[in-house]
Each structure stands twice: as structure tokens, then as C-alpha cells.
Amino acid sequence: MHDPHCSAGELPMTTTAYEIADAIGKPPPTAEQVLVIESDPHTPSLVIAGAGSGKTETMANRVLWLVANGHAQPSDILGLTFTRKAAGELAERITQRLDQLADVGLAQRRSDDLLDQPTVSTYNSFASSIVSERSLLVGREPNSVIIDESTAWRLARSIVASSDDERLIGIDKGVNRITDLVLHLERSLRENVRSTEDVSAVVHDFERLLDLPISEKPGKKTPYAALVTAVRDVGALSPLLDLVERYSSEKRRRGFMEFSDQVALALEICRRSPSTVSDYRARYKYVLLDEYQDTSVVQTWLLSTLFSQQSVMAVGDPHQSIYGWRGASADNLDQFARQFAGGTCKTLSLLTSWRNAKRVLDAANRVVGPLSNAAASDQASEQAVVADAPGASAQDVQLLGPRPGAPDGTVSAYMAETITEEAAFLADWMAEQLATATTENPITAAVICRNRSTMPLFAEALTARGVPNRILGLGGLLSSSEVIDIVSMLRCIWFTDAGSALIRILTSPRWRLGVSDLAALHSAARWLSAHGGIGQQPLSDEQNEAKRHSLAPEDSVSLIDALDSVQDAPDNHPMLRGFSDAGLSRARDAARTIAAIRTRSSLGIADLVRIIEKELRLDLEVLAVTGYRKQTQQSVREALIHARRNLDALYDLIAHFLAVDEEGTLASFLAWIEHAEQQDSMAARPEAPDPNAVQLITAHGSKGLEWDVVAVPRLVEGEFPAASRTGDGWLRLGQLPDELKGDANSLPQLDWRNAETQQEFIESLAAYKQESKDHRGYEERRLMYVAVTRARDALLLTGSFWAGQTKPKGPSPFLLELADAGMIAALPEQSEYDENPIDPHSSADLWPADPLGARRPVVEAAAAAVVNQLRDAELRHSALNDGQQRDDGGQPVDDDIRARIPDNLLTDIDLLLAERAANQRRNTDLELPDRITASRFKDFVTGSQEVANSMRRPVPQKPFTQTRLGTQFHAWVEERYATPRGTADTLDASVFELDEEADENGSIVMGAEPNANRGSVAETSAFEQLKATFEASPWGGREPHEVEREIHIRFAGRTLICKIDAVYSSMIDGEEHFDVVDWKTGKVPRTDQERADRQLQLALYRIAYAEWKGVPTDRVSVALYYVGADTIIRPESLPGRAELEAMWIDAVTAPNSGWKRE
């Protein structure tokens, strides 16, 4: 049906859409598609395209028709959409069809010149190109950095936290909440092209409502509480606007931009530069605008400023307008004719669903029916509900009909008593649907949730049922077990109070500490709190009282501090009484590993995460959990990619963070992650449907995607549709007044300016709240329509009366409407129970969880098979060495065990054993590394073969220990000399040098994070003693000549890397001499061999520095300073370069050294 204001003109043409399709071997377009394809190329037009109606194909064919009939060259065409995925698909389809058109002689062949190609991009990318080309016209630099949501949040939070505006106290909100309000307000201003002055004027006028008479009738003498609250919240905009100004200024100072900034700046450029508008109009004569219902006000103003009265075709569906919360306006479709055509335009429709089966489409039409103004199509007239509902689009939107030959499909529903039963039913249904999948005909599936909070429950149910699944988006990534482990470890090494993260690590498959041992760790923390340290007597009452005043409660009972102390305490220490033998061993191993990783905290984040991945053995765990190969046809490479995808996605996330974060520190990364977890505001990562796993995604995130089977859970009152959160609308704290929004006419109206009394305002407010609630209901109905239309063939709709609440939730109105129409079976509307039947104590879970779970019998059988095979190989090897020959082929694997092992696992076992045998038969010596560190030199010359073995088959090594006290001291020394936090004792340090061992009394001071003020009383005292000792040392009053100097020299054909803590210079007999010093907080060497090991490294330091400085070695001295013992070690003699190189060559060329000879 055409818009009543529109008319269609007849155009002469030489090649029809039918002829083009026939020429390139494509199916003929439908009649409705022909109307769109052959629409007048010289005037604006609007296309209402329903879900799955083939709009991408039609838009591509529109381009072919324009080119084939000489209306346009490919370079004249601009296509805009919202996602890179959609832009890529449209661009690929257009270019392929243009080539096909040239092959049949209906168009000239395109050149390879990029300027001769059609332009297809996202709306934001298009705005960015304008800013890049023309920003200097408005005094802005073109090379701004685009920041994402969480980076913007961190920047805004720093502005809020540094503010001393006393008006913020009256808002009575935390820093994080105020930060959210500032960001929302700032973006609302940009999206609607408003200034802070515009808002301030509204605030000033609104505050005057308190001056109005209370009522025309006497009686009430105090202002209405609702008005007082509204004036207070609207008045709070004033300090927020000041923060918005500061935040915007800081973004500009740093060269940062958000997407909304780019679009607003592009609009400003176009409004101030007529030449820009004329240039773009000449460049792009034909414009296609996809998903137009999702554009924001500022985007439509930009596009209409550029292309009004030009050949613009906008394609959209008001029924899929679901992004109002992020600035999109469904009113844009209604305003298209006014903005682009001066009031009238041609309106066309695509009304055939090429995606949905009949019953799925019937359900979708029933859901969206109340929003339609038009009569139902013939195919869906029996089910359609036609209503002149408020909030529906002004466009004549008909209901979709099925494609010719569409299958019936299935729509099922289930209303359970409890959410646990609902999840189990959904998992069973999904398993049944996927059971018919084959390699040739895979089935894609999704669970579409209204919000992310319920996803883990349904994911667990799917996993328990044996159905592979994955939660999409950043929230899904951060909820995957391997990523949780990595983030928990990062928190453990940075925060001393990250007790929850530590418990996660200790109960992970790596250590599996039990509940009783965790309780013992807590008891150890309490013991330390009461005694002030491992080697201390109980604190006096006065000391405990002073401690309570100086430390927060969580600091006095730190599990991380306790774990450090458990590692160092002697076995008979009273704080260890509650540990089991196995638990104590595991706890100490965990402490050593965490301490070792902590010493690497100054590394780049990606490098640090790789260390954590290896130390926690997550690379092996993800392979084990995924079964390594689900199908024998799957290649090893595909299996690895599938198993590691969450880990690889985390590295991608880190790379993105580092690209936009100014600091790039571990602390800033953890803050960024924390915001993403709390807000879950990042868009889902675009991913194609995966036939290997059920994908869990939000309804908002599902738009633009489709699956063979779809389940939509939690269809209950208050959840889907969600309860209205708008409340008082724009009167809520931090909201842009509706009258300042570009789509104000389509929003509920609060008639506050015409109120003559406070009572009239209250009456207007009540009506406004009801309209806002209804408006929210329309948005939820559109969201449900999007969720339903994602299903091609099968749809399941579920709900349950009871979850965690005290009152039951009835079925969603959407379910009841479908049941009333006979599209699903009748559902119970009330629960059988008066009280929640879910007993929180009715079930017992094993915690910590068994890492193998249901796979334990299979894995144990596989392990037994490996043991048998290895024993067999060892027996045969022994027999051959004895000159004996076995003729029975070795002891076979027990048939019962073999029968329980899947064939693909037996294949892997055979491959591993074959590799082992091949390695035994051939020379497996390695190439020597090109780069060696001074700290590894000793390892090469004393244990060359061990080094080679560790590199040949890398496994997590036993980590060394360094207490936080040592790290804190080094950070203090580096800060004292005004240098950045260094790595002299972390990257280039041997195991022995970084060990902190107990003194002769068995006491070790608990560590502390660098620059942290959370240490124990004993730790603070020890740290102060170290500082005092250093100040009194020969170096305490001297300024170093060099600090943290890294030197690379050629050594025995290799690159030798030396990292030196400090170098001091002095004049002796008129010549400058240098003293190379390494700070040590560990134990002084006790044996001659330990001293000799130190001398090798110091000898290399001396040679490296002398050569780098260009002075003789006799002008370079070296020393080790053990600060805790106030002991200086200066070698009496050191080997020279020739002797050191000879030691190296002898070691790496010796027989069985493990290294290839050069």
C-alpha cells in the first residue's frame, strides 16, 4: 500500500528487473520487489521491509537496475547500514552482481580503481570519513582516537572522582553512578545536538514550579512531595552539566572521540561548510539507507543535510525498532518524507518472509499485530489482531506473509513450576531438535533471552544435558571458566584483598583446594591478624586496638597475605594446624605460582596473561573440556581453534584495550573489565550461527541473525515484557528533558509548562507516567517480535512461575495472546503452589567441582591405556637393551578398558606414542636460541641438557618465590630515583636470586604490593628497616649514573641481554670509573658454589657495561648489595670474555647437550 501523500511516476527503461535476473541466472524477483527495484531513480523513496523479507537482495538488485539502465555508475552509489557484517554482505553481493552484469554485456566492466567502486559502509564509518576529510574546517584534528564504552567510562570516572563540587553531595549517589549519569547526559546532548545552555534554561524554568500556588482550593499547605522530588532531580542536572563540560574538554584535549561525537561533528561540518555538502552530493548521486528505523536523530539530520531532495531510498521496519535506549528513534521512518522529500515520497513494502516457517510467522504476526495500522495480508488474516494502538508507526505496515512453499514449522510452549524445571525442559527440547543434525545438514540453534542474568542457568542446563553451548558477547566471554580464572589471577596479583578471586583460583582444577583447607586458610589469616606476623607473639590489647583503628577489617584478615605466609611457615607452625597434608602442599604450590606471576606484573598485559594461561594449564584444560575432537572428520587445527576461541577472544579484547587506553597498565585493565562486567554495555561480538554449539544471546543482540531452531525463555510477567523502568520519564535523575529531543513529538508529553498550580502538574504527571508505561510496552512488543522472527523452522517459548521471588509470576501476555489464538496449547495461568517450592537446601552440590565431571570414567580409562602403553614400550626398550627379543608384542591394553575409550581418543594416544617412538629414533637436538639473558647463562653452562629438554617440550616450571616486601622495596628505590617501575629483578633474574627464604628463626615477613598501604604491622616495620638500611648504605646518599640499563651485546655468536639495576660513577686518578650494583632483598649466598653462580652473572654485567660504555673492564667494578643483611659482596676475581665464551661453547657442544652443533 502506498503512502496517501505519495505518487508513482512512469519511467522509460530499456532493461527490466526480470530481464536482469534472467541474464545473470538468478530467480525472478517478486512483484513487490520489482516495484522497489524499478522505483523512480530521481526522487526519495521509503521501503517498509519486514523481518526476513529479502531486503539485502532487493537493495543489491536495485543497484544493478540503476547501472544497467544508465542511471548511475558504480561509484555514484552509497550504501549505509549499521554493522560491519551487514555492510560486508551488501558490498560483496553488489560487487559480485555487477561483475555478473558485465559478463552478460549489460554493464561496463569495473576497473580495479577503488574510486570507481560503489561505497558501502556503516553509518558511523561514513560520519568518520567526513570528519577525517573535513574536520580542519571547524578547527578539529582529523586523527582522533575512537574510544569504546568502558574506556569512556574510565575517563569520565576520573573527572567525577577529582571533582570538589559540593553540589554532588546533595545528589547522594556514588562515584560510579554519577559517572553513568554524566556519560548518558553527554551522549544525549550529542545525539540531539543540544548544548548545556539549552538544558540549563529548562532546569531554571522547571524549578519555578515550586513558586506556583499549591491548588485552586484551600486546604493543602505544603508542596506535593512528587513535585519536590522532581524539582530536586531535575535541579541535579546543573552539577552534572558542569561535569559533562569537563569530560568533553578532556576528550578533546586527549584527542579522543566517541561515535556520537563523530556524527555530531560531521553534522557541524556540513552545516558550516556548504562546499562539503555540494561535494558529497556530487560524489554520491544514489543513496541506500538500510535499517533506517535504528538511526538516531543526529544521524538523520546529517543524512538529510547532505542528501535531501536527492535519490535516497531508505529501507526499514518500524516493527523492529528496538534500540530507543541507545538513541534510535522509530519516528525517523515517519519523518523521512518531510526530511528528504519536502513532505511527500513514494512508500513501498516488502511483505514476504523468506525466512520463517508458516507457524513461526503466524506467531510473529500475532505478537506484532496490535502495532499494525493496516489490514492483515491474506495469508495471515485469520490470526492478525488489527488495532489502532497508540505508539504504532504512522506508516501503513502490513503483516508478513509466508514464501511460496514455506514449511509449516513448529511453535511449542511450556509453563513450568520452577525455573530449574523450565531450564531442564528447554535443554531436553534443544537436544531433541539437534539430534537430527548431520554433517551434510547441520542445525543452528539459539536461546534468546530478554536479559543476560538468566543465561548462565540455561547454559548449565544445556551442558548437563550434553548440549554444547556458548554465551555470546563480552558478558559471555567474561563468564567462560577459563577467562574467569585468568581475570581472577590478575586480581590476585594486583589487589591484596581479592579474597573471592583467590578462592576461585585455589578451587580451580589446577589446585582443587577443599572446603576444610579453605577454612584452614581463613583461620591462618585470623592467626596472623592476632599475632602480627609468622614469627610474632600475640599482640597486646593496646596493639590490637591500635591495629583496629589503622586497618580496615578486610585488610586485617587478608587471604592473599595468609597464603603468602603459609608458603613460608615451617611445617610445625601453629597457623597451619587446620590444613590436611595434601591441602597444605597444594596451597604452598599455589602460593609459589602466584608469587612468581606477581613478579611479572610489570610485563605487558598480553604477555602476563600468556604466563597465567600456561601456569594454570588452561591451554591443556580447554582441549580436555572440549574433548579435543568432537568428530573424527574435524582437523586438529579446527579443534584447536574451537577449543581456544575464548582465550583467543580475550587476547583480541586486550589488543583492543591497549589500542585506546592511554595507560595500558594492569590496574587500568582491571578497572575496564570491572566496568564491563557491571554494566554489560558492550555490544555482542558479531558471530555467525555455529552448528557446533547452541548460542545464548540477548534479544537486542539477536537482531540481524537467524537460526534453524530458537528457544525464548523467561516469558513471564515482569521479565518479558520487562517491567517499565522509565518511572517518571525525563524527570528521573540525569535525563535530558524530552522537549529538547529531536523526536519529542513521538514521545509521551508532560504538560508542565501550562500548569497553573502544583495540583495541575501532579495531574499531568500521572497521565504522563501512564503514557510512558504504554510506550515502554510497545518497545517490548517489538523486541518480542524480533526474537520470534529469528527462528526459521522451530520455536519454543517457555516460562515458569517460580524463580527466586516470594510470589509467583504468571505467564507473559505474549504467551496468553498466542494461547488465546490457538497457536500454542493452553497454559496454566496459576501455580499449584502458594509458596515458592524451590528449597534452597534441597540439593547438594560438590564444591569445589570435579574438573572432569561426567567425563571422569572415560578420562581415567584413557589414562590407564596410556600408562599401559608406556609400560609396554619401556619393557620392550629394556628387553632390546638386554639383547632379548619379545615376540608377544608387549602387554596389550585390557579389552574392557579399550572398549570404554572413544575411537578418537585412542587415535590421539596412538599418535602421541608414535611421536615418542619417532623422537627416540631420531636426533631431536634443538637449535640454540639467538638471544640469551645473563641470568640464564649459568643454567646453560651447568645444565645444558635440562634447558634443552624444557624448551623441547615446554611445561609449566616450578615457579620461584618473591615476597611482596622485596617488590615493594625495589619499587621504592626506583621511585626514589624518579624512574618508572622497573623490571631489573623480574625479567632478567635467576630462580635463586628471587627466592625469599626463611631466616634462622623461621620467620618471613609477609609481602605487599608495590605502593600498597595494606601491609601488616610487621611488614611495615620490616619495610621501614630496609629503607633505613639502604639510606645508611654507601649508595644511600649518592645519585646513580644509570638506572635499569638494558644492554645487548654479541657473545659467542649470540645476543646477550643484561639488565642492570644501577650504575654509579666516580673519578679516580682523573678517569671515570663505574660501579655496577644489583639490589637484593633475599638471602645472602651461603656456599662457595652459590657465590660462584653469582660471579658468572656479574662477570657478564661487567663485560657488557664496559663494552657498551667503551671503557676497559678494569674501570668497571661490580657488587651485590643484600639490603636485609646489609651485606656487600664484591668478587675478588672474575672470568673475562674469552673464558666465559669458552665455558659456553664447551657446554652447548658437549655430547648429549641437547643442542645442534653449528
From TrEMBL:
<keyword id="KW-0269">Exonuclease</keyword>
<keyword id="KW-0413">Isomerase</keyword>
<dbReference type="InterPro" id="IPR027417">
    <property type="entry name" value="P-loop_NTPase"/>
</dbReference>
<keyword id="KW-0234">DNA repair</keyword>
<keyword id="KW-0067">ATP-binding</keyword>
<feature type="region of interest" description="Disordered">
    <location>
        <begin position="877"/>
        <end position="896"/>
    </location>
</feature>
<keyword id="KW-0547">Nucleotide-binding</keyword>
<dbReference type="InterPro" id="IPR000212">
    <property type="entry name" value="DNA_helicase_UvrD/REP"/>
</dbReference>
<dbReference type="GO" id="GO:0005524">
    <property type="term" value="F:ATP binding"/>
</dbReference>
<feature type="binding site">
    <location>
        <begin position="49"/>
        <end position="56"/>
    </location>
    <ligand>
        <name>ATP</name>
    </ligand>
</feature>
<keyword id="KW-0238">DNA-binding</keyword>
<protein>
    <recommendedName>
        <fullName>DNA 3'-5' helicase</fullName>
        <ecNumber>5.6.2.4</ecNumber>
    </recommendedName>
</protein>
<dbReference type="GO" id="GO:0033202">
    <property type="term" value="C:DNA helicase complex"/>
</dbReference>
<keyword id="KW-0378">Hydrolase</keyword>
<dbReference type="GO" id="GO:0043138">
    <property type="term" value="F:3'-5' DNA helicase activity"/>
</dbReference>
<keyword id="KW-0347">Helicase</keyword>
<feature type="domain" description="UvrD-like helicase ATP-binding">
    <location>
        <begin position="28"/>
        <end position="357"/>
    </location>
</feature>
<dbReference type="Pfam" id="PF13361">
    <property type="entry name" value="UvrD_C"/>
</dbReference>
<dbReference type="GO" id="GO:0004527">
    <property type="term" value="F:exonuclease activity"/>
</dbReference>
<keyword id="KW-0540">Nuclease</keyword>
<dbReference type="InterPro" id="IPR014017">
    <property type="entry name" value="DNA_helicase_UvrD-like_C"/>
</dbReference>
<dbReference type="GO" id="GO:0003677">
    <property type="term" value="F:DNA binding"/>
</dbReference>
<feature type="domain" description="UvrD-like helicase C-terminal">
    <location>
        <begin position="358"/>
        <end position="704"/>
    </location>
</feature>
<dbReference type="InterPro" id="IPR011604">
    <property type="entry name" value="PDDEXK-like_dom_sf"/>
</dbReference>
<keyword id="KW-0227">DNA damage</keyword>
<dbReference type="Pfam" id="PF12705">
    <property type="entry name" value="PDDEXK_1"/>
</dbReference>
<dbReference type="InterPro" id="IPR014016">
    <property type="entry name" value="UvrD-like_ATP-bd"/>
</dbReference>
<dbReference type="GO" id="GO:0000725">
    <property type="term" value="P:recombinational repair"/>
</dbReference>
<dbReference type="GO" id="GO:0005829">
    <property type="term" value="C:cytosol"/>
</dbReference>
<dbReference type="InterPro" id="IPR038726">
    <property type="entry name" value="PDDEXK_AddAB-type"/>
</dbReference>
<dbReference type="Pfam" id="PF00580">
    <property type="entry name" value="UvrD-helicase"/>
</dbReference>
